Structures are given as C-alpha cells and as structure tokens.
Amino acid sequence: MSENLGGFEHRVLLAMMRLGACAYTVPIVDELERVGGRTVSPSAVYVTLRRLEKRALLTSEMAPPGPGEGGRDRRVFTVTADGVRLLRDTRRDLMDLWSGVEALKP
User: What is the spatial distance between Cα 31 and Cα 35, in angstroms, rounded to a whole number?
Assistant: First the structure.
C-alpha cells in the first residue's frame, strides 16, 4: 500500500484499535490523552476521523447512546480492513527504520 499516515492520524487509528469495536470522539480523545500525557482537542480528533473516513480507512454510522447513558445519537467509527493493513504496513516500515538506529537503543 503506497498511502502514508501522518503522526496524528497514526495515533488516532491506534487509539481506536486499543478501544476496540466502535469508537466515538470522546473515548478516543480520552485514550490519546491517557497514553500521550497531553491535552488533545476533540475537534482535531473529529476532523482527523472524517479525513480518515474519506480515505476509506474507517467507516462511521450514527448510534444511540448506550444503556444508562443519556443524550443524543453519536457518530461511531470503525477501522476498516484497509485501515488495519495500513497500520501494519506503517508498523513494519517504522520497525525496519528503528532497527538501524543504534544510538537510541536502551
């Protein structure tokens, strides 16, 4: 696959994979902040999700709130097979690059 992922796109897709099943903006933001240790803008995540959807790396649909949750329907996102494949390709490429960097090894 010849596509590339930007750094934030990469992190958003990985956060979605960590969350499993269908994810929506708030838990993705929470996961990125928890793992990355810094504040993440929900609007930046949402814009990135829509961009990844246009690239067919994920899909979305409207879903009602879960049991015991109030509020309105929300857009939930799912990583597609192409999204998973691109993450795997990116991981492989990064691992290949890291294998030649001796100065940063523990």
Answer: 6
Q: Residue 45: which residues within 8 A CB-CB, separation 6 or more?
A: 12, 25, 28, 29, 32
Does some domain include residue 1? no
* Cα–Cα distance, 3 to 41 (Å, whole number): 25
38: pLDDT strictly greater than 60: yes
Compute the average pLDDT of residues 96-104.
79
* DSSP-assigned states of every residue in 21-82: SSB-HHHHHHHHHHHH-S---HHHHHHHHHHHHHTTSEEEEEEPPPTT--S--EEEEEE-HH
Within a domain: 37: yes
Report how far Cα 69 is from the mean position of its chain's Cα atoms: 24
State the pTM of this model.
0.85
**Token reading at 89:** 């390709």
Domain that holds residue 11: 7-98
